[in-house]
Amino acid sequence: xxxxxxxxxxxxxxxxxxxxxxxxxxxxxxxxxxxxxxxxxxxxxxxxxxxxxxxxxxxxxxxxxxxxxxxxxxxxxxxxxxxxxxxxxxxxxxxxxxxxxxxxxxxxxxxxxxxxxxxxxxxxxxxxxxxxxxxxxxxxxxxxxxxxxxxxxxxxxxxxxxxxxxxxxxxxxxxxxxxxxxxxxxxxxxxxxxxxxxxxxxxxxxxxxxxxxxxxxxxxxxxxxxxxxxxxxxxxxxxxxxxxxxxxxxxxxxxxxxxxxxxxxxxxxxxxxxxxxxxxxxxxxxxxxxxxxxxxxxxxxxxxxxxxxxxxxxxxxxxxxxxxxxxxxxxxxxxxxxxxxxxxxxxxxxxxxxxxxxxxxxxxxxxxxxxxxxxxxxxxxxxxxxxxxxxxxxxxxxxxxxxxxxxxxxxxxxxxxxxxxxxxxxxxxxxxxxxxxxxxxxxxxxxxxxxxxxxxxxxxxxxxxxxxxxxxxxxxxxxxxxxxxxxxxxxxxxxxxxxxxxxxxxxxxxxxxxxxxxxxxxxxxxxxxxxxxxxxxxxxxxxxxxxxxxxxxxxxxxxxxxxxxxxxxxxxxxxxxxxxxxxxxxxxxxxxxxxxxxxxxxxxxxxxxxxxxxxxxxxxxxxxxxxxxxxxxxxxxxxxxxxxxxxxxxxxxxxxxxxxxxxxxxxx
Length: 668
Known about the structure:
Elements: E1 2-5, E2 8-11, H1 15-20, E3 30-31, H2 34-48, E4 52-59, E5 65-72, E6 101-107, E7 110-117, H3 141-152, H4 157-167, H5 178-193, H6 198-211, E8 216-221, E9 227-233, H7 235-244, E10 247-250, E11 254-255, E12 262-269, E13 275-283, H8 288-301, E14 309-312, H9 316-325, E15 330-333, H10 335-345, H11 347-350, H12 353-364, H13 369-382, H14 389-396, H15 417-432, H16 437-464, H17 474-482, H18 485-496, E16 501-508, E17 512-519, E18 526-531, E19 536-539, H19 543-547, H20 552-560, H21 587-594, H22 599-619, H23 623-642, H24 644-667
Parallel strand pairs: 10-14, 14-15
Antiparallel strand pairs: 1-2, 3-7, 4-5, 5-6, 6-7, 8-9, 9-13, 10-12, 11-12, 12-13, 16-17, 17-18, 18-19
Helix pairs in contact: 3-5, 4-5, 8-9, 10-15, 12-13, 17-18, 22-23
């Protein structure tokens, strides 16, 4: 770049070095653009001890800059402010009416100083004070070149400023404040991450892992060593999965706008019947291999604990992967997705009220296979849909969506269509916003905070209030004390509905009773079995098996038998106020998990994490509580160090690590 000074051309590669060489500004000095004009004035001002700001600008008919003024920052006077206006911060009045001015005139793209007034009416800043000049508080190229590598080395921002002070002799020579260095490092880090590079996302995950040791992430690469799939979840998601991981919805309907990746969240339902997030993935394609990797990775992150039920959209690749990886899990199709697809494939019929009534009956009101077959065939014949390929495919998958084929499958009420709508409302912005991968992850994190805040609010409501009881006695009081407010409302609706149930005893062998029940206005007959010796009750509607709440028919029997509380076996912990207080792993879960290898330790770790989380939360409420927890942790560590089995296991791990290091050294 060429710089002209009174007819003399200076050729320098470093702009700062050129500007630093100029002790005085003179009319006729030329630069190539506005940025160089500002830097020239700013460098001069800093050397003298004052700050500048941009002033008047004049443009020609083509909107090109013809003239630009740079003022001393003390030019003019501060305008009078409304003293009645409440402001959090009132800035100091620093204006003195200084007339100092540097004017550039622009001709054919050349910026030339045409007028200068260097008379100031105030004192200049002393050398040790110049670092606080507003326009001088910047990170010039030389400083940035030094700080840049420090970002990669993960140097803390608080150490960057002393580092520069040493490099330039002292803090006064840095030309910026400690805060400026901190801001630069933060901006530089953000700019590095905003590139959308896969490695940047991995670096971001590593950073999250440093903040949260329980944070988990994994990536898959193709044959060319290119990253294709990502999965991540934080530590809180693992705890939530331990509590509510019996039912999972895996949604692949969202695609990132910028990269066209599939954004696939794993979603559950908590004890308030609200969404809870277990993790998320970016998947490059919908192949069986990608889904197999993803489900295996998801299980690994959750201690190999398989859900009881997983809901997905229709897809052969996904179904194949579930059959391979989630062998203990029932695969169900999300009704919301089916309804959405119906508007596309049978839109003209779906808008017909009579058709929709018959169609919905197949999804919600058929409790036997024979009843479904009759209803479905009637639907096809009545609307002449024998040749509709989409309905033919849907019928072939009926065991995955019709309740008649899976009444005993626990769904946590995930079948309801509003659940899918809720997930969509949470993630639809991913498909509309142009974000890089890190931006998408941060968007997911924001949504996670919203979801968890809603759960926290509901926990607070449950802790500090009780629902209004229809009857202040018996089962009503017991249910209100156990269930969350939301689940109590569901239970209360069933309990109040017993008054519309008509029941007769049809069998009795001493301890085992059999009843037939009908609901007023409905012809369907329900069979209820009750054992007086064990207090076990079951109903053919299978509401307890599918949702975890006793149905009105079973409650009718308990009322007949004068129960004043819900039998303990029928209070499902996941729906109670104390759902997250403790995690008790069943023995069968340990057995099935041990087949997977690492899971025994994972499950023990999960249990300890829950117990520890409760202890740490309570201990952190005050200083004395914190001291108690820290003291007991020290005692626990001493006990572990003296335990033979623990030290033996730790020694084995150290041997494995040492061998790994030796193998690496030999390979190199």
